[in-house]
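[Q] Does anyone have a clean structure-token version of this?
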Amino acid sequence: MMRFALTATFIFLCTALGYSQFTGPQQQQPRQPQVVDGVAAVVNNEVITISQVRDALQGRERTLRDVYSGAELERKMTEIRNSILKELIDRQLILQEFKKLQEKGANIPEYAIDNKIQEIIRNDFAGDRTAFVRTLQAQGYTLTRFKEIQRDIIIVQAMRQSKMSDSFVISPIQIQNFYEKNKSTYSTPEQVKLRMIILREGDDVVGGSKKQTAQEIRQKIADGAEFDRMAQMYSEDETTQEAGGDWGWIERNTLNEDLTRIAFNLKAGEISPVVELQGTYYILQVEARKNAQIKPISEVREQIERDLVQQERQKSQDRWLNSLRQKAYIKILT
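[A] Here you go.
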């Protein structure tokens, strides 16, 4: 369990930075034909290899193949590959920029790397350093190499964070304009609080049919019987029977089209007639209703301000990355 946790963590960290991912101990792997690597891109005086792009693509490729096929899969694969290559180029530019800062005395303290590794050992190995090192060795990585990877991750994160300025003042007009353009984001849909009794044709019924039973239950409710009590006694929906047929607050996309139409046409406190759909009988009760509404700006003002600040911070980081790209020699070869 702990080895799997580190493997998952380490694969993410390595592929995010374009490093070769775990494949298990080399002595346990069958001999494979040697693959000659190639250059995917040149960034100033350094290269990004095809294997770095391929390794970073692997996890996302599996996800894409589960969803797409044919020409659509190829198009999505190309989009993701181009995105990964761009990420790797940006990473290389950031690391190169940090090297310039190192010449002026900047550095990542060793304790920051050690603290990160201790966090991984604590979270993924329950504090067992021996198991952590043993897993690294089994996957063909030394502790020194793992520290180098962590160091690069910390550098990239710190450099990005340092370029996200916080000196932004969001005006009331900006907040108002954002609210007007994105009102649907702050809306809540129409809802009903529903209870439902369900009887299915096919099970043996003493003294009559399921339809007759449903009609008798409906009459008992009309005569004053509690709906939830009737649901507990007669409903055949195992997921809601004990709760008295309670479906809670539902939206229009919760039930099928026919039941949705019936439920949302009922008034609060109203009970439907027996509804027959494909051999199943339903009795619906709407306990309460909530109309669709949009939250007033007073309720979402702080959230909008936080969102706008985050957008501005991201823009400042993007401007910095664009300046690095413009000053760099970048040649994409694949």
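[Q] Thanks! Anything notable?
[A] The chain has eleven helices and nine strands.
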